[in-house]
Amino acid sequence: MGKIVTRACAARARILVMWRARIVCLALVVSGCSRPAAAPKSPLVPATTTMVTAWQVPLHPLEDQTLDKSQLSEQIRWGYQIFTDTPRHAGRFVGGQMSCANCHLNAGQRERALPIVGVAGMFPEYNARAARLISLADRVVDCFLRSENATGRSLEELPTTGSKEVLALSAYITWLAKGQAVGKNPTWRGQNTIPAAKLLPLDKLDTKRGQAIFLERCTSCHGEDGQGKAIGGPVANSAKKAGPLWGPESWNDGAGASRVYTLAGIIRYTMPYLDPGGLNDEDSQHVAAFITSQPRPVYPYKHRDYIGGKVPVDAVYYHSEQR
Asked: Is residue 262 in a domain?
């Protein structure tokens, strides 16, 4: 009787071992077949652009049905309109013909084109030019003063952090940060700069070569005079006009785009408009040197910038005033 019990126990043990082995094999198969989690999909329009994607706006407040008739929703929608057609919707603070979207393409939602999606969560942040911590509204005011040349329109009526246009733009930019991490730089921020190792000394940049490249590659949108031409869109009434690159209607000499290397990075990754990346690092810098050698409105408060710090070497308009 004892032998029978022993055999039964041994058989049961063998069955248990077999089942355990099968479970282990199944686990290995499942783990081998499973794939690592896919990286989150970028909310931005790709940097490589076609005639269709050049006009895309993934997050479009005028079409978003989740926005209601509340005051905040109205501010977000107006902020988008200001962003895409600044002279029309915020004319009292615009001294030329530049719109925010002339630099921040696809309403601030294109990869490597100064995208602003998710950046609201990074404010307040330190700004070297201001030499202090600034808020999002401070940054918007600065863009009005410099890129929109508000100082060229009137020194009596300048934007403040409480101006309704500033609040509307801040609302739109904050809306674009919905669902993004707070206090963490989006991976797509700061990706429109030329690596330091690729930067040429300013005295090696050739404005005549830059002009030749400009006339060959840039005039279909910007015109030979740099003042911009209408660019037809994929559907009726969707044409855009390139912003003026120099002259009285352009950004002033205190704007970020008035710095040679900053402008070169923008050109490198966003131009030509339908062939971004078509110019290499070197050619982009020559073109930027040509554009920043041209006359433009004067920002009257440059003496207040970089207090206690060093003026960047490529801030050519600052250095020309110091000579």
From this structure: yes
